[in-house]
Specification:
Number of strands: 15
CATH architecture of the largest domain: 2-Layer Sandwich
CATH superfamily of the largest domain: ATPase, nucleotide binding domain
Strand content: 25-35%
Structural class: alpha+beta
Shape: rod-shaped
Radius of gyration: 52 Å
Number of helices: 10
Helix content: 40-55%
Strand order of the largest sheet: 8-7-6-9-10
Number of domains: 3
CATH topology of the largest domain: Nucleotidyltransferase, domain 5
């Protein structure tokens, strides 16, 4: 049989581990409580276990299961373990960060597997001892261990075990007797003591589940911490993966941009002669525009300016035109007429080749206004 050290080497953090304790490490009691309220069981069991164990309740972990209930009370299977001894036993697991999900008792699994109903006597080997356990409705109610597989000792101890169980209120008149296959040589002795046939049982794989859990609070906290750390590591790995993905996409985008820039530079270099020709041609046309474009002919510009006069109260006195600018000096009977003239000039569709700006009119002593309107080719 593999030791716990050998088993621990095969396990990994995060594995679902259930640790089943040997019977000599725990205290199992059958308690009759005057209540059917589950909320009161914990405190009552704690008081009873404290009386039977030489340790304070802070040094132990206890749990219980209901065997039966009636109107007057409940029959409870209570189990307790000393935390220090449990830590010593589980040291190979704890040193590797392997925290069990559940801590149970192997005898409880045996009872739940082979004797889920009625009263049964289970006899099986455990380490160097023989375990004699009485189960009621699949719950552990009475236990005893023998030092060796000696038929004579079994003949002496089994009747005393049955009598002790009777004194605790367990009906052992006709129990179902379950004997491990490895103890087959004791079958005649056991059947002779109880005057009834026995059943052979094998090591169950996997055993039946049980709700009993002796997991210490410190182990629960450590398990929660490990679970939290694992969760954070998982989140960090996801974030790191997402960051790496974004970084790869960004690098791919940079490569794509460099390729596009290189292609654009090749196109620019290839089209440079034609582009230069277009720029040169455009500059020439702009230089020649005043000479060949009717919109820039002075006579046409003057005609359109006169068409924009709002009334005879606005007069053009000076007109100048060069390749870069047009200037119109004039006089109006009021400043408002000067502004009105400037707005009509800006809206004239035949003068849209220029961008006109009106300077602030200068008022004359006779309330007339002199103005200057300048236009530049667009």
């Amino acid at each position: 049989m593999a030791s716990l050290d050998e088993a621990a080497e095969l396990l990994r953090p995060g594995d679902d581990i259930v640790l089943a304790l040997p019977l000599d490490l725990v205290l199992a009691q059958r308690l009759q409580l005057p209540t059917t309220d589950p909320s009161e069981f914990v405190e009552m069991v704690r008081i009873q276990v404290e009386k039977a164990m030489p340790y304070s309740t802070d040094e132990m972990t206890t749990d219980s299961e209901i065997i039966s209930q009636s109107e007057t009370g409940s029959v409870i299977s209570a189990v307790a373990v000393h935390n220090e001894k449990l830590n010593q036993l589980a040291a190979p697991l704890l040193s590797r960060g392997l925290i069990p999900r559940q801590v149970t008792v192997y005898a409880v699994h045996r009872a739940a597997t082979h004797a889920p109903h009625g009263t049964s006597l289970l006899i099986y080997p455990e380490s160097d001892s023989i375990v004699c356990a009485i189960a009621e409705e699949g719950k552990l109610s009475f236990t005893s261990t023998l030092d060796a597989a000696d038929p004579l000792q079994l003949q002496r101890d089994l009747p005393q075990l049955a009598l002790s169980a009777e004194l605790q209120g367990i009906n052992t008149s006709a129990p179902r007797i379950l004997l491990a296959e490895s103890l087959f040589e004791l079958r005649d002795t056991v059947e002779g003591i109880f005057a009834m046939p026995s059943e052979l049982i094998a090591i169950e794989a996997p055993p039946a589940e049980t709700k009993l859990n002796l997991l210490p609070e410190s182990w629960r906290q450590r398990r929660a911490q490990l679970a939290s750390q694992k969760d954070w590591r998982k989140r960090l790995l996801i974030l790191a993966g997402a960051y790496a993905g974004v970084l790869l996409l960004f690098l791919a985008y940079l490569v794509y941009l460099r390729v596009q820039i290189r292609q654009l530079n090749k196109r620019i270099s290839r089209d440079a002669p034609r582009t230069e020709f277009v720029k040169t041609t455009e500059a020439r046309w702009k230089a020649l525009a005043p000479a060949i474009d009717p919109r820039y002919y002075p006579i046409e510009v003057i005609l359109h300016l006169f068409d924009s006069l709002p009334s005879a109260d606005v007069r053009i006195t000076v007109f100048n035109q060069s390749a870069k600018q047009i200037s119109v000096d004039g006089e109006a009977n009021s400043a408002a007429l000067a502004y009105q003239f400037a707005e009509k000039v800006k809206k004239n569709p035949d003068l849209q080749a220029f961008q006109f700006e009106l300077g602030a009119p200068r008022l004359l002593p006779n309330d007339h206004a002199q103005f200057r309107l300048e236009g530049k080719p667009k």
